[in-house]
Amino acid sequence: MSTTTVKKLLVHTYLLLFTMPIVGMIIWYFLSATFNSTTGQFSLENFNFVKEPVEYAGVNLPAIWPIVLNTLVYSFLIVVIEIFIAVPAAYAFSRLDFKGKLGAMKFLFLMRSFPGITLIIATFFILVQMNLVNTYLGVILVAISGSLPGRVYIMKGFFDEVPWDLEWAAMVDGCTRFRALMKVLVPYVLPGIGAIAVFAFLGAYGEWFLFKLFIFDDNMLTLAGYLSRLVTKENVIMNYGLITAIGLFYTIPLVVFYIFTQKVFLKVNLGGAKQV
């Protein structure tokens, strides 16, 4: 056996050892959702939540479809707001000179590395004072303030990679700075905008912690928050079949989303853009 074959064998064995537990968990996930543990037969009984509210062991949750609508509206709102703020902010940090720019950049970097969980009590107090507890606006403000520094930092890297000559040429031809941004720069940084849009959507789709802390009305939950209500319910016997069935319902759109957006992830080079 040649040395190359031995190396390949070792690599594949190594990967297989790490993959097997994950594959095992996925198989258990499907089996737990689609088999009746009492009779051992295939059953879709656990998926009844798609046509009626969830009720078991004293747990009452609303019908799933309004929750799906909440999830989509919340996720797309986060995407739109983050792009609307991150793109012009990143352009300013990349292209403009202004007082305090270096300090603001360092502050952004610090905010990226600061664990948000340590601010949760202060955040809750502020939301109470602003009467924003149990409102979408409160959750959106907290979510965006936590993720926006990272989005701006990534977008700045994309703007930095666009040659100055292109923007100057557009302005020499009569474009205003805003028109040069929209007509010349934005097409070059579209991979970056796509990347932060994908990150923002995935972050919003999977957000459950803020909903657990700041939302007390079950009708206002998103899918992740809905699932967390079942998983974290205290003093209640877990219905694993129901939880895994809702987990599948929650995960499958995410898997499809990953399949269609994986090229966007490949275009992201932290701190810059390969496509510019």
UniProtKB/TrEMBL annotation:
Belongs to the binding-protein-dependent transport system permease family. MalFG subfamily. The chain crosses the membrane at residues 9-31, 72-93, 105-127, 133-154, 184-202, 240-260. Its main location: membrane. InterPro entries: BP-dep_ABC_trans_perm, MetI-like, MetI-like_sf. Residues 68-261 form the ABC transmembrane type-1 domain. One of its GO terms (molecular function) is ABC-type maltose transporter activity. It holds the Pfam family BPD_transp_1. Gene3D superfamilies: MetI-like (1.10.3720.10). It is found in: Cell membrane. PROSITE patterns: ABC_TM1 (PS50928). CDD domains: TM_PBP2. GO terms for cellular component: plasma membrane. Keywords: Cell membrane, Membrane, Sugar transport, Transmembrane, Transmembrane helix, Transport. One of its GO terms (biological process) is maltodextrin transmembrane transport. This is Carbohydrate ABC transporter permease. The keyword Transmembrane applies. It comes from Paenibacillus terrae. The keyword Cell membrane applies. It is a multi-pass membrane protein.
